[in-house]
Amino acid sequence: MNFHILTLFPEMIMQGIGTSITGRAIEAGHISVEAVNIRDYSDNKHCKVDDYPYGGGAGMVMYAEPVFRAYEAVREKIGKTPRVLYMTPQGRVFRQEMAEELSKEEDLIFLCGHYEGIDERVLEEIVTDHVSIGDYVLTGGELPAMVMIDAISRLVPGVLNNDASAEIESFHDNLLEYPQYSRPEEWRGKKVPEVLMSGHHANIEKWRREQSLIRTMLRRPDLLENANLTKQERVLVDK
Ligand code: SAM
């Protein structure tokens, strides 16, 4: 899976994604991350990439042309036209289902805005998806792109040591994950639930499923409507 990020701050992307699990995934060749500096595609002798908005108002707006050229350079290099995800607080909110859907693509282009955003004309021309990471406004699209790349990468086969671990995590099937424990068996007077020490796999599974349901009911009841529940579980949560 290949991520191409159009940005004014490529170093931010490479520092963020080049470490830990995603860093190892790059080294192992499971994913590739290319940060393309939009400024390199400016035709202005001072490499200027933004200007005041027509109609007045605060802030600066990024020019259309350097963004378009950076996009064309990626397209030419890879010889195809992938989806272009514009990071914007005005987009569809990113969720695990979207991460699962996007993890099936071979190439993705992320477009990061800055300042007041990007000239609308180039967005109309190249963007296929407007995506937000939540209802708040950040200074730039780099953190949203990194959030998405991290979430998508861990669904790419080989990136996690154990591929099954992505399948039983929070939001898969619209349930939150059960609580997790590790050594020691007792920590400051708190014991690990006995069932987890029993070695009885069926009972462990049952306990984990119950905990998932309880946790989702308490913390994120909004998810339950679309959760994949048995008839019995549905009756229980609808009470
Ligand atoms: N003027 C824009 C508006 O009101 O919709 C906000 C611009 S914001 C200050 C600058 C850039 O940060 C945006 O172009 C976008 O790329 C990114 N950004 C800010 N908040 C975001 C969010 N919640 N999700 C995704 N991208 C975001």
From TrEMBL:
<comment type="subunit">
    <text>Homodimer.</text>
</comment>
<comment type="function">
    <text>Specifically methylates guanosine-37 in various tRNAs.</text>
</comment>
<keyword id="KW-0949">S-adenosyl-L-methionine</keyword>
<dbReference type="InterPro" id="IPR029028">
    <property type="entry name" value="Alpha/beta_knot_MTases"/>
</dbReference>
<keyword id="KW-0489">Methyltransferase</keyword>
<feature type="binding site">
    <location>
        <begin position="133"/>
        <end position="138"/>
    </location>
    <ligand>
        <name>S-adenosyl-L-methionine</name>
    </ligand>
</feature>
<dbReference type="InterPro" id="IPR029026">
    <property type="entry name" value="tRNA_m1G_MTases_N"/>
</dbReference>
<protein>
    <recommendedName>
        <fullName>tRNA (guanine-N(1)-)-methyltransferase</fullName>
        <ecNumber>2.1.1.228</ecNumber>
    </recommendedName>
</protein>
<dbReference type="GO" id="GO:0005829">
    <property type="term" value="C:cytosol"/>
</dbReference>
<dbReference type="InterPro" id="IPR016009">
    <property type="entry name" value="tRNA_MeTrfase_TRMD/TRM10"/>
</dbReference>
<feature type="domain" description="tRNA methyltransferase TRMD/TRM10-type">
    <location>
        <begin position="1"/>
        <end position="225"/>
    </location>
</feature>
<feature type="binding site">
    <location>
        <position position="113"/>
    </location>
    <ligand>
        <name>S-adenosyl-L-methionine</name>
    </ligand>
</feature>
<dbReference type="InterPro" id="IPR023148">
    <property type="entry name" value="tRNA_m1G_MeTrfase_C_sf"/>
</dbReference>
<dbReference type="GO" id="GO:0052906">
    <property type="term" value="F:tRNA (guanine(37)-N1)-methyltransferase activity"/>
</dbReference>
<dbReference type="GO" id="GO:0002939">
    <property type="term" value="P:tRNA N1-guanine methylation"/>
</dbReference>
<keyword id="KW-0819">tRNA processing</keyword>
<keyword id="KW-0808">Transferase</keyword>
<dbReference type="InterPro" id="IPR002649">
    <property type="entry name" value="tRNA_m1G_MeTrfase_TrmD"/>
</dbReference>
<dbReference type="Pfam" id="PF01746">
    <property type="entry name" value="tRNA_m1G_MT"/>
</dbReference>
<keyword id="KW-0963">Cytoplasm</keyword>
<comment type="similarity">
    <text>Belongs to the RNA methyltransferase TrmD family.</text>
</comment>
